[in-house]
Amino acid sequence: MNNKFFPANFMFIMMMTMGTIMSLSSSNWLMMWMGLELNLMGILPLMNIKFKNTEIEASVKYFIIQSMSSSLFIMSSIYNYMMSMSMFSMFNTSMLSSIMMISLLIKVGSAPFHLWLPSMCKNMSWLMLFMILTWQKVAPLFMLSFINHNYMIMISSAILSSIMGSIQAINQSNLQLIMIYSSISHLGWMLPISYINNSLMFMYLLIYSMIILPLFLWFSMKSVMFTYSLTQQNNNMNKENIFIMSLILSLAGIPPMLGFLSKLMILNILLKMNMIMLPLMLFIGTLISLYFYLNLTMTMTIKSFYLFKIYKMKINMKSILCLNLLGTTIFIPMMMYAMNIFNKP
Questions:
Q1: Which residues contact 163 (CB under 8 A, 6 or more apart)?
Q2: Which residues pair with 226 in a beta bridge?
Q3: Which of 145, 144, 79 is nearest to 107 (CA)?
Q4: 291 lies in which domain range?
Q5: Cβ-Cβ contacts under 8 Å for 235 (sequence gap 6 or more)
Q6: Does the keyword Methyltransferase apply (predicted)?
Q7: pLDDT tens sequence across 279-298
Q8: Whole-prediction pTM
Q9: How many Å apart are CA 64 and CA 322, to the nearest integer?
């Protein structure tokens, strides 16, 4: 199978999409597990679309990890059924809920269960990496919000993900590894809010996807794989650097970029619930991650000879740049109005 269009590829994409939708719309644990398996069977052939040895190795690793976590998930579901004789019930013991929670944390690649993710994804294409870092996390994150036991496991994993993902990305020169560890750090923000408000968690994931999609497409189009490649672009590519730098700063969550909005929403909710230490630890991880974000931005600034000639940029790049620069300014009044509505008795 090559990179051209095949009807089988369309079928695999539909399997992957329908698997996630099945997990989100199911009312019992067995159907959720079936949706996860359908999603896995759909994405594995897409990972081998160019039939390279590195892609085959990555798909085998992904299959082994996902199969192990699915086995833990269905095992805890069966034990729960044996104790309550119902697939619709919540857990009677914290042991079963802990096993299921760990299995879903393995699926999304949260710390300390994240070690398989960098070694598997560092040789993938940018588009497949985007799918694994965004779409493949939707169903497990929503399923985690249905487990109403052992919040300390979730909070500990969120803090570890935010800090370890930021620390491990500092000395990396591979851009794919930097984006993977950045995704683990952002996952630390999504985990605690999934317990409180699924809509905010989905909004965070949507904003994160909007930021990294044009970034990954640009990396793929320019065949950029390492940080030193950012300094070897010609003058035509340097005109686009301000657009790429705005996306990187938005990914870092620097105001007034769009990425700051999602962190502001989660911070507001956590503080209203009298959680002080959790957002503090999450912000410590974000401050550590600023080092490599600003390092990438500085690398591109030094080599951007046409940095301020924005009038030569294309119209669509201008619009995306304005969205990232003014996103928080536009959305803050809307968000404050919505929060006032929610707080009314």
A1: 188, 281, 284, 285, 288
A2: 174
A3: 144
A4: 7-343
A5: 305, 306
A6: no
A7: 899 989 999 998 888 888 87
A8: 0.83
A9: 43
